[in-house]
Design a protein that fits this description.
- The protein has three domains: 5-124, Rossmann fold; 142-373, Alpha-Beta Horseshoe (pyruvate-formate lyase- activating enzyme); 380-434, Nucleic acid-binding proteins (OB fold (Dihydrolipoamide Acetyltransferase, E2P)), CATH 2.40.50.
- The strands form six sheets. A six-stranded parallel β-sheet has the order 2-1-3-4-5-6, sandwiched between helices. It has a five-stranded mixed barrel with strand order 17-18-19-21-20. Strands 7-10-13 form a three-stranded parallel β-sheet, sandwiched between helices.
- By secondary structure, the chain is an alpha/beta fold.
- The longest helix has 24 residues, at 351-374.
- The protein is built from 13 helices and 21 strands.
- It binds 5'-deoxyadenosine (5AD) and iron/sulfur cluster.
- Residues 155, 157-159, 162, 164-165, 199-200, 237 line the site of iron/sulfur cluster (SF4).
Length: 437
């Protein structure tokens, strides 16, 4: 047999892209590709791009510039561009970057094996009617104890700043029986913690036995899979948190007490301009209802500062909302205009002002994150071991609340769920020891 061809994948952006990159690696595995961590060794380089924030295409073209040099030395090198920049810019990439051999949008990854064998340069950025996952190969090997499972893609919300409805297309939910089968298969191969993924995951409404299933129904059914200890989901829109999903946080033990619920701003005026269709007050009431179902739940969120028209008072309202909720984690971004979105027509807040707001919001959420983490010290928590730590006799994993935990445990094995007592908190992780040992 000939030597395997080597594939180098660079993934930008969200967990959906991480998941898609894994699927592309598997699809190209059918053509004899194995992954490499060294770009210089690669026979093929695949850039899985993200278009959601700042300078995505500049980053892409500067990476392509470097690859051009590599290809001068190695003319057989294949270069592919996937992801949302591929979807948004399409043929423009082939025109601007002669180094590129193929451009593939997120809905066409199942066609990659054919595309790499095609003669000449190829592009596929269609939105086909079929489910791309029907055509991607089954995953068979044993794997780590955590996995992502994409349950829906795309978004119909059209927030004024966001490219997702354009690059990922309309909201499509995958059929529930497929997802149940995939979850069972993952569990059979050692997975104990599944994160259900979707750009608008809680809008899930896939075809299932007895009619459409909601996300709550899907979670309830998956919780019945023997051996599946933990379920999470991300990312949610506040308006799609239905009563049953809120109730599930109280009565499904496998549903973990951590929820990423982006709010973007605390100002009703800005929320309206963002086309978010919720208010600061409706968000706060929602948080209260979820906390009533699951009092120890930790929330995380996304914030955008410097959205066009944001005044000091608007920004103060965002800080006030953050103070009121007390987040366990949060991600904040400076607004950047995405071409083709409605907000891109308007003037953004001046850079120094936006920079100062970003710093202020980050200081506040970092303090909250730290407080949530410090509050775990002395408590007993459950950790799922994902890998050995850097120190001998140390295991690393996540708590139910998604804190990274380093446990001193020389008997620990990957995949174990262990009760531990938290003994210390450092910047981004907790230290712990097994209970009763
Ligand atoms: N500018 C800044 N941040 C953005 N996000 C999405 N689009 C933009 C943009 N144009 C942020 C939102 C979203 C997260 C994934 O990225 O906060 O929730
Ligand atoms: Fe983008 Fe999320 Fe708004 Fe959809 S709900 S448009 S993915 S920010």
């Amino acid at each position: 047999m000939s030597d395997p061809k080597k594939l180098f994948v660079k993934t930008y952006g969200c967990q959906m892209n991480v998941y898609d990159s894994e699927r592309m690696v598997e699809a190209l595995g059918t053509k004899g590709y194995v992954t490499t961590d060294t770009v210089e060794d690669a026979d093929m380089v695949l850039l899985n791009t993200c278009h959601i924030r700042e300078k995505a295409s500049e980053k892409l073209y500067s990476d392509l510039g470097r690859l051009r040099k590599l290809k001068l030395a190695r003319p057989d090198l294949k270069v592919g561009v996937a992801g949302c920049v591929a979807q948004a810019e399409g043929a423009e990439i082939l025109r601007r970057a002669p180094v590129v051999d193929l451009v593939v949008g997120p809905q066409s990854y199942h066609r990659l094996p054919e595309m790499v064998e095609a003669k000449g340069r190829v592009i596929d950025t269609e939105f086909p009617a079929e489910d791309k996952f029907d055509h991607l190969p089954e995953r068979r090997a044993m794997r780590g104890p955590t996995a992502f499972l994409t349950v829906q893609e795309g978004c119909d919300k059209f927030c004024a700043f966001c490219v997702v409805p354009y690059t990922r297309g309309a909201e499509v939910s995958r059929p529930a029986d497929r997802l149940m089968a995939e979850a069972r298969d993952l569990v059979a191969r050692g997975v104990r913690d599944i994160t259900l993924l979707g750009q608008n995951v809680n809008a899930y409404h896939g075809a299932g036995a007895g009619g459409e299933w909601t996300l709550a129904r899907l979670i309830r059914e998956m919780a019945g899979i023997e051996g599946l200890a933990r379920i999470r989901y991300t990312t949610s829109h506040p308006n799609d948190m239905d009563d049953d999903l809120i109730a599930a946080h109280g009565d499904v033990p496998a549903l973990m007490p951590y929820l990423h619920l982006p709010v973007q701003s605390g100002s009703d005026r800005i929320l309206k301009a963002m086309n978010r269709k919720h208010t600061s007050d409706s968000y706060l009431r929602l948080i209260e209802r979820i906390r009533a179902a699951r009092p120890d739940i930790l929330f995380s969120s996304d914030f955008i500062v410097g959205f066009p028209g944001e005044t000091d008072a608007d920004f103060e309202a965002t800080l006030a909302l953050i103070r009121e909720v007390r987040f366990g984690a949060a991600y904040s971004f400076k607004y950047s205009a995405r071409p083709g979105t409605p907000a891109a027509e308007k003037a953004a807040v001046e850079t120094p002002v936006a920079d100062a707001r970003l710093q202020a919001v980050q200081a506040l959420v970092t303090a909250q994150q730290r407080a949530a983490q410090d509050a775990m010290v002395g408590r007993e928590v459950t950790v799922l071991y994902e890998k050995a730590g850097r120190m001998p006799g140390q295991m690393v994993g996540k708590s139910d609340h998604l804190h990274a935990v380093h446990v001193t445990d020389s008997e620990g094995r990957i995949g174990d769920l262990v009760r531990v007592r938290v003994t210390s908190a450092v910047t981004n992780s907790l230290g712990a020891e097994p209970v009763g040992r």
